[in-house]
Design goal:
Elements (H helix, E strand, L loop, with lengths): L6 H10 L11 H14 L4 E5 L5 H5 L7 E6 L2 H6 L7 E5 L13 E7 L8 H9 L2 E12 L7 H13 L4 E11 L4 E10 L4
Parallel strand pairs: 1-2, 1-4, 2-3, 4-5
Antiparallel strand pairs: 5-7, 6-7
């Protein structure tokens, strides 16, 4: 089944339950890696979560250290389901190409959660978003990696990895996560922007 393209199509899919599996226990390892990276690096204070869906990552973040969370998703129906603390969280209906933060807003961590498949050039999106990283901030990426390593889906994973190997980035961690029970795999990267002279 091809992915939805418009916000209205994504809303319909959320209402029909197509994405309910993202709340399943079998998704926790992937989300746990992202949350663990943010905690281990001390970057979980001000988090921008692109492709946040129902705020799945938010529920796994260390709430004691979280000061600000901005969740962005194309589906308003998904955002309406998110259970976040409005005192520290803001949810924005937008796609990854059109989103811009509030003036002067920066983040200690930016997470691309299963969303870079929808970018024309994943590496370019990483660079564009880097402008909103606070000094020393990190970027965490998770992408579904099809078993078939030919075709458009895997090409997007390769484009993300090639973009993150640019001298602009320091790769702090790179891993492949395999779910035997789901028979799926993900490729994840943890990046820090290099300070250029």
């Amino acid at each position: 089944m091809p992915n939805a393209e418009t916000g209205a199509e994504w809303d319909a899919e959320y209402r029909e339950g197509r994405w309910d599996f993202l709340l399943d226990i079998k998704e926790i390892p992937r989300t746990g890696v992202l949350a663990g990276w943010l905690k281990a690096t001390g970057a979980g204070r001000r988090v921008l979560d692109i492709g946040c869906g129902e705020g799945v990552l938010y529920a796994h973040l260390d709430q004691t250290g979280l000061e600000r969370y901005v969740g962005v998703d194309i589906s308003q129906a998904a955002l309406d389901r998110a259970r976040v603390d409005p005192a520290k969280a803001r949810l924005v209906a937008a796609d990854l190409q059109s989103f811009t933060p509030e003036p002067g807003e920066t983040f200690s961590a930016i997470v691309f959660n299963e969303v870079l498949h929808f970018a024309e050039e994943p590496g370019s999106e990483l660079r564009r978003y880097a402008d909103w990283l606070a000094p020393g901030g990190i970027m965490a990426v998770s992408m579904y990696a099809p078993w078939k390593e030919t075709g458009g889906g895997y090409a997007k994973v390769q484009a993300m990895e090639a973009g993150s190997e640019d001298p602009f980035w320091e790769v702090l961690d790179a891993l492949e996560l395999v779910s035997q029970s789901k028979d799926v795999r993900w490729r994840l990267r943890l990046l820090r922007r290099r300070e250029m002279p």
